[in-house]
Amino acid sequence: MDAINNFSGLKSYVSNLQNTQKIGDLALNKTNTTQKSFSTYLNNAVANLNQNMTVMDNGTTGLVTGTNNDLGKVMINMTEAQLTLQTAVQVRNKVLDAYNDIKNMQF
C-alpha cells in the first residue's frame, strides 16, 4: 500500500511541478515582452537629443531674426540641449571604455 501511496504522491508532486513550471514560463514570457532593449533606450535618447538641439536651434534663430523675443525660454532650451549633449557624450565615453576593456581581455 505504501508503494501505491508513494506513487500517487510522486505523481501529484510531478503534476504540481509541471504546473508551477508552466506558470513560471508564462511569467517569464510576459516580462520579456514588456522589457525594452538597450538599442531602444539608445534610440530614444538620440531622438530626444536631436529634438532638444532642434528646439534650441529654432529658438536661437527666432531670437536673432526677431520673431522670438523670449530670451529666458531660449536660454532654458539652450541649457537643456547642453545638458543632454553632455550626457550623451559621457554615455558614449563609458560605452567606449567598456568596449576597450572587453577588447583587452585575455581568454
From TrEMBL:
Mostly located where?
A: other
Enumerate the subcellular locations listed in this protein's record, separating them with semicolons. Answer: Bacterial flagellum basal body
Identification of the protein by name? Flagellar hook-basal body complex protein FliE
Entries under Pfam families matching the protein: FliE
Q: Does the keyword Coiled coil apply?
A: no
Q: Which InterPro entries match?
A: FliE
NCBIfam families this protein is in? fliE
Question: What species is this protein from?
Answer: Periweissella beninensis
**Chain segments annotated as transmembrane:** none
Please indicate if the UniProt record lists Transcription as a keyword.
Answer: no
**Family that this chain belongs to:** Belongs to the FliE family.
Q: Keywords on this record?
A: Bacterial flagellum, Cell projection, Cilium, Flagellum
